[in-house]
Amino acid sequence: MDPSGFDRANSESPFLAFVAAEFERRGTSRRKELAQKIISHPFVEDLGMRVPKRIAILDSLDRLHGESLPDMFVLKLANGWSSRGVMILERTGPDEYFDHMNLQTLDVASIVRIQLEKAASFSQKEARWIVEELVVHTLGVGAIPFDYKFYCFQGEVGLVVQIDRNSGPVRIVLFDGDFRPLKLGTDYLLSDSAKPGVPVVPLNAPEMLWWAQRLSLEADSPFVSIDMFDSPTGPVFGEFTYSPGGTHRRMFVFSHGLLDRLDELITQPGRSVDSLAGTSLELRKSLAHPGALAYRAWAGYAYGGGPRGAERLHVHYRQLAANYGPGDPLHDWYRRLSAVWAAIRDRLRVANRKRLLPASRTVA
Fold this sequence. Notes:
This protein is an alpha+beta fold. The chain contains 11 helices and 14 strands. It has 3 domains: 165 residues, ATP-grasp fold, B domain (D-amino Acid Aminotransferase, Chain A, domain 1), CATH 3.30.470; 80 residues; 73 residues.
């Protein structure tokens, strides 16, 4: 990773300084509370957003034996973060599970050992674990739903991070706050611990943006990452993160221009002029998206490198926009979604031409 023109010392960036400080210690008691999934999930559910169904809270892992839990579920530390210790377990025998996060079959004794080690790494002497449903995601690529992290600044979304954990290293893409894909090598760089992915605008992106704005106002903080999953029935809340590991550990670094923008947002929030930022949740829910099957096919094809999938989504939203006049919020939302998918289509076409260029020269 060539850092020229990218990254800064924490002391030179208000945004990076805040993330580093929160990593060391939460700044307020409210942040400490909301960083705990046991507290944040019921709180967010009371606000009206879906959260993963909680199956159990465990003080010990004895219940992993036998048939007391579903055949597939998520196991995580109640006070963990950055996906450390998260397991997606599928039962393969009475005391045996396949972990889709680490792609290995584990007996219960191994699961307990790993979880206790993770708890110790968080300095948790009396750990608790959450058992919850596995969210069925819209894209259908792998068993692990894509993680969308909305970097929020008191009601304004400044950045969106897309993380695909179905490969190793993870695949990462960055968007701006309107889901326009940022450019790798221009706006950000990835470390060796990550690979570039293909940008995929979630099926329920407008609703996700609304919830990110709304929840960030509850965070008692100039910055918070609102983590979500996209499901066929709507967005699903993940967690409040005040010190996202991707930023703090420099899994990706920002250009000086992008850092200037994030620094401005954390020091001078509320200056957005986006006309769609204030549209209601009800209006966003009324948008006519593709059906779940069509979206999964088109977006999945695009994620595999196929421009035709992005073209299908571009055309879908362009045709919907034609039913409304300019200035109508529905027209403007459809135009925005159409334009974003057109940009993804064009990016995929360029990438495919670059891949084919050496072969063409060899044939010549």
